Amino acid sequence: DGVGHIGLTGPAGTNGKDGSNGIDMSVKNGYDDAAKGVKGEKGVDGIDGITRIVYTDKTGEHQVAT
What we know:
Blueprint: E1 3-9, E2 22-28, E3 52-57, E4 60-65
Antiparallel strand pairs: 1-2, 3-4
Region (Disordered): 1-21
């Protein structure tokens, strides 16, 4: 299906059980064809030395160029 999953768990709490800190995210494959992926204006495909990050949260999809 091309969808991956990353989970990080914080340190164990004082009682030996999982702590409350952690992060959980799902990822999807990049694209081989512009018609299949997200096409940003600047930084697409690493042109201009900019990295584009696309993420989705409860308010929708967002793009960030670094």
